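Lecture 7, part 2: worked example. A protein chain together with glutamine.
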Amino acid sequence: MQEIMAMANNSKYLFITGGVVSSLGKGITAASIGCLLKARGLRIRMLKIDPYLNVDPGTMNPYQHGEVYVTDDGAETDLDLGHYERFTGQATSRHSNITAGRVYWEVLQKERRGDYLGGTVQMIPHITDHVKSAIRELVSQDVDVILCEIGGTVGDIEGLIFLEAIRQIGLEEGTDNVMYVHLTYVPYIAAAGEIKTKPTQQSVAKLREIGIVPDALICRTEKKLTDSIRRKLSLFCNVPANAVIEESDVRRTIYEVPLMLSEQGMDELILVHFRLARPSAHLERWRKMVSRIHHPSGSVRIGVVGKYSELQDAYKSIYEAIAHGGIAHDVRTEIVKIAAEDVEKGRAEDVFGKIDGVLVPGGFGHRGIEGKIQAVRYARENNIPFLGICLGLQCAVIEFARNVCGLKDANSTEMDPQTPHPVVSLMEEQKRIRNLGGTMRLGAWPCDLRSDTIAINAYGTEHIRERHRHRYEVNNEYRSLLEQKGMVMAGVNPDADLVEIIELPTHPWFLATQFHPEFKSRPLEPHPLFRDFIGAALKHATEKDQ
Ligand code: GLN
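Predicted complex, written out as structure tokens:
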């Protein structure tokens, strides 16, 4: 039966596992392979499996997890899905990320419903079957290859059941239809002046113990792999020499990775393995984009005023979207991370003088909020281009209410439930919610743009859909006062009449969104708002210099 299914659908499965250490950039590598397969004309779907027990990362804090990436259909997912979308130009969905927590949760719910008809419910076959069916959920007539990344590192206890499941898929689908790629670390030991293969040998040995023999190795390394190292890796890991691929640290941008892998024949290797014939990769646009990053004609400095300014991963999509805005103007974007709490303590004054644009990103809770509000004020009063996102919009509304409308102590009820002027507050539906997981306003919502605004000029269309992740909203009771004082509601949700975009027309470029535009920005298609924000910052920088 399964054989018939595989033949009917002709889907191939490519599994990416990781070895030796975490933080090797498995998500970027998987996304790069996705980019290459698309460039070869293959239709793909990508999936990330996370072995932790949270049902999704929506309730995890950024110190634990980094950014929570939101899909159009409102799933709160792993940030690697952001890489998948940026590298493949293709949207992901709630089927693109599963966690061990979700698998166990669903199996246990089935057990409670009596679906197992009194049988003993076990890791094998019940959990493994559930994992396999979640992977096969992506199989369809219009998909050639399913690319599935297994989170964590081989040897982790919590990842074992997933490796067992993908081993079984290999058995069921046949070797031509399943490929295992192992991303590993090949360290250089400076004291010995040598590159070492042993950690990789041991990691592959662990995989083989489970019954998975990798078909290719991608080696993260700081030094070039010599021929003798490649031969050694090939021999000890039982991988053909041409399937030992080097992935060295990139010079300037992660978008070099697909090109690096393609030069070593990674896409060809996959096609040969799957016995698929396709024309060579169309990477011209990608190559041009990377070359633009390598040869900028200028630079701008963007201050990002965040709560987690020390965490690279907390604002991943925002940093990427800023870089995309730079690509659109051929400039390098330098990100100046400003801790909101430093602004509060007056420790950030010199920094503000040196930046060309201020971005206040999303966030939760009151820590750093007053610093963010001060940053908005600085940008508004000094005519510095400003982009606020989600909490950034809420801060802009609070700042305007306090300092322009004269509403002393105006606030969001998230920060001050007793505020006399709740300019940002909860909608009635949200007040009744008790569970924190998956209950915010999530995913893509429609928004109508008002004529004669920065927003409509940027998008070039009246109706847009953007992704949300928040509970609080601009309080419509204050809308007419804010408008009287000069704030323009440039984008509004047509169904619920909620404010989605605000602007200040007296300022050179001041815009904030309740949604997260960063999730839809891609290097080949920079998001219009980020593109124009960087354009405004560039103009500001040029005028400042004159
Ligand atoms: N904390 C705010 C809310 O829940 C903003 C959320 C965000 O910035 N993503 O509405």
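The chain has two domains: 12-288, 296-545. The CA atoms of residues 24 and 220 lie 7 Å apart. Keep this in mind for problem set question 3.
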